[in-house]
């Protein structure tokens, strides 16, 4: 593919020209939330200026416009994921809500002693909803261990899967802390052979890869709009249609019903059964615009640009005495967690911010993973395709300075 013109691409993201603490912004917190191109801002603005109304209400033209844009965005997501039908694409508030919908939906398939397998590197969003369901049903959570490099320990995985009581595999596609890309195809194939329901947390994967849910053959795949250069408040639950038909909804209300009476209420058809209340229409439109925006670049060119950033970061690690990287998997997206001798992660974050550099510090909503590495938290730089090699170098120059001034 053709190499990306990063200078031009950066002009699509107005916020990247901001200054922070008198310095040009260096935004390396894309794993927490990515920035938005003008295409997304304009699509939402245009929607509000010309087409806003409630959806699926029919009686007037604006209602039709809003519905067309809203359902058009759903089709964009369907195509992005290669789902069979828009019936399999449910709008949620984000990854967290999507996993809660799935956990609640699968709860009635669980009995006491059934096992839910989750990996040690899951985000809390892919742990806590399962614990709540375990509490309700008597099911138990079984962790899948990782290796020191931050990869799935496949013998632990096989061991967990060998249990007759294993029912659900809930696993991330990409670790938000380590950047590890999980060998999903292999793990999902094994889980399917054992008859488990499979739930994939794609929150950190979709900014880097375009998942094909038919090729993966997972039952559920979820992600958030805001990490995919779209707005907050919108996310996606892909669910296999036969399962979604059988699952109860998490929330009741308007829109998700077919007929309501005091004696008995029946559910609407998919996907609306899982979409109680007025949906985030502008946000759905914005997410559709983000996916369209990304679609102009070949995935290969995006990956090449991102891997160059990661490689440069890896090369510069040794220029900062006392810095060590946590998570050294062979297959990674451009995310780097690290610690520095003599410095608390939050101090690293504050000192970098003074130089205009935004990273994230803390436990990253992955406390079981922090426990594994025996750290209270890490400093994490997470890159997007619009970051430059120059920004990677600025990060490491700033870390060298911090190390000289503050570390023991
Ligand atoms: N899973 C992973 C892997 C994540 O990185 C995040 C966001 N940090 C979430 C789930 C939760 O996403 P959201 O807060 O958008 O619901």
Automatic annotation (TrEMBL):
Gene3D superfamilies recorded: Aspartate Aminotransferase, domain 1, Type I PLP-dependent aspartate aminotransferase-like (Major domain)
Record has Transferase as a keyword: yes
Cofactor: pyridoxal 5'-phosphate
EC number: 2.8.1.7
GO molecular function terms attached to this record: cysteine desulfurase activity; lyase activity; pyridoxal phosphate binding
Record family assignment: Belongs to the class-V pyridoxal-phosphate-dependent aminotransferase family. Csd subfamily.
Name the UniProt record assigns to this protein: Cysteine desulfurase
